[in-house]
Specification:
By secondary structure, the protein is mainly α. It is rod-shaped, with a radius of gyration of 61 Å. Helices cover 97% and strands 0% of the residues. The chain contains two helices and no strands.
């Protein structure tokens, strides 16, 4: 009987130890579960932060590409100083061409007047020649009339 009692006590002690071990194991599992939950929450936070970082990086990349495209367009055009130089050169050329045009127009006007004077002179000369011819004809008729009388 003492052996059985000792065996029961041993069994009871063993069961208590297993029970205590199970309790500690449950506490350990709860601690691990809490750590895993915290790690999952932390991972979600990191994922959210990474998504935000990706969005910022995409925006920065897009802005950079737009900047590069604008820079290429700008590089195709001359700078302001060069443009102003070209503008001044074109303005000078325009002034020179305007001056030449005025000279040509003045010359044309002069030639028109000279041509008009020439035509008037030719017309007067023709009129004079016709008058001279008439007078010669009239003189010739008078002479022939005088000779014929």
């Amino acid at each position: 009987m003492l052996g059985t009692l000792a065996q029961c006590e041993f069994s009871m002690g063993k069961t208590l130890l297993v029970y205590d071990m199970n309790l500690r194991e449950m506490e350990n599992y709860e601690k691990i579960y809490t750590d895993i939950e915290q790690n999952i929450t932390s991972a979600h936070d990191k994922i959210s932060e990474c998504k935000k970082e990706i969005q910022r990086a995409k925006r920065i990349r897009k802005n950079r590409q737009e900047y590069d495209a604008l820079a290429k367009v700008i590089q195709q055009h001359p700078d302001r100083h060069e443009t102003l130089k070209q503008l001044e050169a074109l303005d000078k050329e325009l002034q020179q061409l305007s001056h030449i045009k005025e000279n040509v127009e003045d010359k044309l006007e002069l030639r028109k007047k000279q041509f008009h004077v020439l035509l008037s002179t030719i017309q007067e000369l023709q009129q004079t020649l016709e008058n001279d011819e008439k007078s010669e004809n009239d003189d010739a008729q008078e002479s022939s009339m005088e000779n014929g009388e």
